[in-house]
Design a protein that fits this description.
Shape: elongated
Structural class: alpha/beta
CATH superfamily of the largest domain: Response regulator
Number of helices: 10
Distance between the termini: 74 Å
Number of domains: 2
Oligomer: single chain
Order of helices and strands: HEHEHEHEEHEHEHEHEHEHEEEE
CATH class of the largest domain: Alpha Beta
Strand order of the largest sheet: 2-1-3-4-5-11
Strand content: 15-25%
CATH topology of the largest domain: Rossmann fold
């Protein structure tokens, strides 16, 4: 009996030590992003990691490569490896809900960055750019730039991403009021530069006479511009992007792209990391959605901006 009691005391002591050791270990933050094939998301992820380090936490970046199945593997890894929070840039508004829900069930808070999931409670908070409002403004500029008439093309992003449709709807809420503007093609290029170039080349074969291109992100805008250069039409067609990426900012300075919308990934990433820090320290009440304002950038105001932000 004495041996049994001694064994139980020893087990309790060892268990207590393990819990104490775990409590003393630095918190770990997983940063799961949709893709690192886009410089904008690289900046988002690296900024989140830098802020996490400044706050005293370990972090690791996981690249989902725009693949929800790979994203699921990253979540399984984060949960089983003892990560304490996940800063999350989803691959799919609907398909990514299950991963956030799984983390929540494991007691791990999830803070979405830039991309939204279709759930009101799976994520602890979602920090999102106000894409719709920005594209209302971009649409107005598009109308004025084209003189309220002409043929245009719209390149959509990933169709399962809410940002794609928020941007498209904001744009059309302005442009569709002008019957002189005719959309001759609307196709997805998955937010990808190379695919946008290929899609644009194909569209130009069917619709050689266009006056403008509205793209759901800067990567697609740059791809569309490349296709226009190859077709000797770059000086006749106005190209609009969205993001505020470095190559787009430089292209606006050089008179290649007409405009973009500046998101602020530094604010988004740092807010997500700061929310994780506050969660660790006991805060549990966070805004379910935090909109971050987006600003239209043109050649007229380009001197106020640098890649991914303001000067």
């Amino acid at each position: 009996m004495k041996k049994l009691i001694l064994a139980l005391v020893l087990f309790a002591s060892l268990t207590s030590c393990k819990k104490s050791d775990k409590a003393e270990e630095p918190k770990k933050i997983a940063i799961v992003v949709s893709t690192l094939n886009n410089p904008w998301f690289v900046f988002l992820a690296e900024t989140a990691a830098k802020k996490a380090k400044e706050l005293g936490y370990e972090s690791k970046i996981f690249d989902s490569q725009n693949n929800t199945a790979l994203e699921s593997d990253h979540f399984e890894n984060a949960i089983s490896s003892g990560y304490d929070a996940i800063l999350f840039n989803p691959t799919d508004a609907a398909g990514s809900v299950a991963n956030a829900t799984k983390a929540k069930a494991a007691g791990i808070p999830v803070f979405c960055m830039d991309r939204e999931i279709n759930s009101t409670d799976a994520a602890t908070s979602q920090i999102l750019s106000d894409s719709y409002s920005a594209c209302v403004q971009l649409g107005k500029l598009f109308v004025d730039t084209l003189g309220k008439k002409g043929n245009y093309v719209e390149l959509l992003g990933i169709v399962s991403d809410n940002n794609t449709w928020n941007r498209s709807k904001g744009f059309h809420s302005s442009v569709d009021n002008y019957p002189g503007l005719k959309m001759v093609a609307q196709q997805s290029a998955d937010f990808d530069r190379n695919k946008a170039m290929e899609v644009m080349e194909s569209i130009l074969q069917a619709h050689p006479d266009i006056d403008g291109v509205f793209c759901g992100n800067d990567a697609m805008a740059m791809g569309a511009y490349q296709a226009l250069v190859a077709a000797n039409k770059a000086d006749k067609v106005k190209v609009f992007g969205f993001d505020g990426a470095e190559d787009a900012i430089n292209s606006i300075k050089e008179g290649k792209l007409t405009a973009t919308a500046m998101q602020f990934p530094k604010i988004i990433a740092e807010t997500a990391a700061t929310y994780a820090d506050e969660y660790f320290k006991g805060k549990k009440d966070f805004p379910k959605k935090l909109p971050i304002a987006v600003e239209v950038v043109t050649k007229e105001n380009i001197d106020k901006y640098i890649a991914y932000g303001k000067k």
